[in-house]
Amino acid sequence: MAQPGFAAFVRQRAARLELELAVHGAGSGRFTVDVSGQPDLIDAFEMACSLGPLDSLVLDCERTATHRTSGGDQER
């Protein structure tokens, strides 16, 4: 079950990695996040969340297709 501290952890990691972040369905100890940015940084974000605070559990990660932008490859 996700704790309020995990939401803060997710926001801090996304900011540190300069990823765009949207949190959905916060409440009842569960939430979903959408991140977008450089694929390697999304990989780092996924790993950080998976290894995050001990009282948190990441159930699933889903990736969508990469597309090109003026800033290089982006992924969501």
Structure write-up:
- By secondary structure, the chain is α+β, with helices and mostly antiparallel strands.
- 33% of the residues lie in helices and 28% in strands.
- It has a two-stranded antiparallel sheet.
- This is Acylphosphatase.
Task: Kindly summarize this structure in a few lines.
The chain is α+β, with helices and mostly antiparallel strands and 76 residues long. The protein contains 2 helices and 4 strands.
Number of domains: 1
Shape: globular
Specify Rg, calculated over alpha carbons.
12 Å
DSSP helix fraction = 25-40%
Treating each run of at least 4 consecutive H or I residues as one helix, how many helices?
2
Strand fraction equals 25-35%
Low-confidence stretches: none
Oligomer designation: single chain
User: Structural class of the secondary structure composition?
Assistant: alpha+beta
Distance between the termini: 24 Å
Largest sheet: 2 strands, antiparallel
Largest beta sheet: what is the strand line-up?
1-2
Give, in order, the helices and strands. Answer: HEEHEE
